[in-house]
């Protein structure tokens, strides 16, 4: 995440870009907001580096920002939209999968992937891709995450299945479905920004399968984050 934020800052040197964490690491959201307020900024856009709109985006972060507004009434805080299944991030996911295929000895398939507009299955073995996300207690959030697998399939022609690290369907279920449809080789594609406990859990579930890298500091991630910033910073339209 520090590499992502450094890339964002490099692309927009006119902005004061800072990294904060919701939990498990520092600096915290509270610490960063307090620092911004102490430096007499009047407005801050908070861009959640989150792939889904679930508890963190809908409850956790808004609660933290509401408390911060009470502490710093002079600071206008705006929460931007989550990253979501943006087409640019689907391309980033595709790039990570292609790299994993190459590492797994499937470099012949990469020629077909040079364009983000590929609509047919690459040559070589028939690949099945288990797109693995964190999962949510919100069925609606999980349904939206399922769009990632569908968009990836439309872009590349790969056979895809969505699965989750914390709920159903599991990666084992996705593996079984892909095998039943005739996939000759199967790869786990984490729909995660960074590695951690849950990506380790996915790897341990089926340790013989290749697993792509997380999206990480892909250049397109910085672009999407800046798009969310730009949308949130637009002036509100006044209704009649």
TrEMBL record:
Keywords, comma-separated and alphabetical: Lyase, Metal-binding
GO-annotated molecular function: lyase activity; metal ion binding
Coiled-coil intervals, chain numbering: none
Pfam family, one: CbiX
Domain of life: Bacteria
PANTHER family according to UniProt: FERROCHELATASE CHE1, SIROHYDROCHLORIN FERROCHELATASE, CHLOROPLASTIC
The name this protein goes by in its record: Sirohydrochlorin chelatase
Native source organism of the sequence: Nocardia aurantiaca
Record lineage: Bacteria, Bacillati, Actinomycetota, Actinomycetes, Mycobacteriales
